[in-house]
Design goal:
Blueprint: H1 2-12, E1 16-21, H2 24-36, E2 40-44, H3 47-56, E3 61-65, H4 71-83, E4 89-93, H5 98-106, E5 111-114, H6 119-131, E6 134-136, E7 146-148, H7 156-166, H8 171-178, H9 182-196, H10 201-210
Parallel strand pairs: 1-2, 1-3, 3-4, 4-5
Antiparallel strand pairs: 6-7
Helix pairs in contact: 7-9, 8-9
Length: 211
């Protein structure tokens, strides 16, 4: 059991949970909860502050605790999903309003967590969301677009390398096309796999084909 907890802490050490809540006490409590799980945390009192901080560092998870029935909150959720592609967004609600929860999920929320929060289940839900490479985005034109976690973090060169890899080219062939060494291709390839959460080349292909 201790080994499992250590594993999760190690895996989470570079992941950032951004908490958006108008109550400082809630921000601090959730911050402590996720730091104990090995995550890095940051908090914002409102969405305007969130977007300013997001420009400095993109979050791996967003926890949004505002009025779930508020259109401004739903609009903010939609904006977060449009700029943080593939990032799980959890919304906190003061009550178990099923209709409001369904609406939030249509706007792209990964899940809606009702208060009082079951911290163990909440942390487990966040872990499960981070293990998934593919997420559903907000409804657009009656459809739910597929989002690939980490894809928006790829540099233009990493996207080029990814394209050549998925076309079946070897490191040597890709390097020749891009005018760089096979070793440099290998470095880019490793970074792409890390950002997309791929364990091996087959897993990388699965993620790309799913998109």
């Amino acid at each position: 059991m201790e080994q499992k907890l250590f594993y999760h802490s190690y895996q989470n050490r570079d992941r950032l949970v951004h908490i958006v809540d108008g109550d400082q006490g809630t921000c601090e409590a959730l911050g402590v909860l996720f730091r104990l799980e090995g995550f890095q945390t940051i908090s914002s009192m409102d969405c305007a502050e969130f977007f300013i901080k997001m420009e400095q560092r993109a979050p791996d998870v967003v926890i949004l605790n505002l009025e779930i029935n508020s259109q401004s909150t739903l609009d903010a959720l939609g904006r977060i999903k449009s700029v943080c592609i593939g990032t799980p967004v959890f919304m906190l609600a003061n009550n178990r309003d099923v209709i409001a929860a369904v609406t939030a999920m249509k706007y792209g929320a990964t899940d809606v967590i009702a208060k009082p929060i079951d911290t163990e289940k909440f942390v487990s839900a966040v872990r499960d969301a981070l293990r998934r490479d593919v997420h559903l985005g907000a409804v657009q034109g009656g459809r739910r677009p597929i989002e690939i976690r980490g894809f928006n973090q790829l540099t233009p060169r990493e996207r080029q390398v990814l394209q050549l890899i998925t076309n079946g080219q070897s490191n040597k062939e890709a390097g020749r096309d891009l005018g760089i060494s096979p070793r440099t291709i290998e470095v880019h390839r490793a970074r792409v796999m890390e950002k997309l959460g791929a364990r091996n080349t087959a897993d990388l292909m699965r993620i790309v084909l799913t998109s």
